[in-house]
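ingest -> validate -> predict -> emit
validate: passed (alphabet ok, no gaps, 363 aa)
predict: started
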Amino acid sequence: MKKKMLVTILSTMLAVSSLCGCSQDANKKSTNQGNSANSAQTTDKETSSAGDDVELVEGDYKIGISQFAEHGSLDNARNGFIEGLASEGFVEGKNLTIEYQNAQTDTGIASTITDSFVSDKVNLICAIATPSAMSAYNSAKSTDIPVIYTAVSDPVAAGLANEDGTSVGNITGTSDYLAVDAQLQMIREILPKAKKIGIIYTTSEANSVSTIEKYKEKAGSYGFEIVEKGISTISDVDIAAAALAENVDCINNLTDNTVVSALDTVISRATEKNIPVFGSEIEQVKKGCVASMGLEYYQLGIQTGKMAAKVLKKESSAKDMKFEVIDEPSLYINTAAAKKISLEISDDEKSKAAEVYDEIISK
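emit:
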């Protein structure tokens, strides 16, 4: 009798345990489904603001973005690119997946990144800055994957375009071509007595090499001599900046990715000698360059994203599109940077500026 009662009790306990377990599993499953739903709602909320006014493009697309360095101007180009795509119906989280990787100024890593995008069979590669664009072109050359680049100062010198602007292959994009004459004219107006302009550049960056030649070619017309310092790695910037600051009236910064990544070092060395640093675009001015006749990289990115959208929609092919530029540079001035070295910028010059900043923004 006792044995029979014991068996009954054990059976009852097992049944109750099983029911509890089922209940817990059901609750857990319900909770997970709720979390997934909430997550989906959150994703929709985050991405729905972009592209709400345009009809979504049917299908799912995957894009690889390879960025050569991590600094403000290239980040702006990337964000603008994504915005440009969204304005044409390609919205991240809805019908678009973006795989983003940064080469941290290493050309070897840049090649590995674009090789991996090709292996992943992405629909398109966006390459930000010249070394990444060159790597992407080489990686995708034997495939049908189009490459759209941005922030490439001289696509012709980089071997990405022909002299007439046409593409050398299944690749096109936008150039951040520097307005050398406008920059030299601006420096002359701000520094009427200056004679020597110092420029640091990376010898392995094709865009920087070609831009240096343009400066040397045009400098004499404005009464300047260009004093150049070539570097190989970011660790060379400090020594080069210190040496230049001893012998020039100002330093002019290019869009050289390695040097821009160490811009604080350049500005610090120049400030020690009470000489100004001029930038090439808005983010450099925000960070402490005195002025720039430059471009806005976010807008350049939007322009690039719209070019990419045409390729994805098959309205055009990369090989049939000439690279594009922003036609007119804008003047940006930082009065706080000028004040640090006791440099007076005239009201007339400030009145010409698209933006005048009264603080140095370090980020």
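The longest strand covers residues 61-67.
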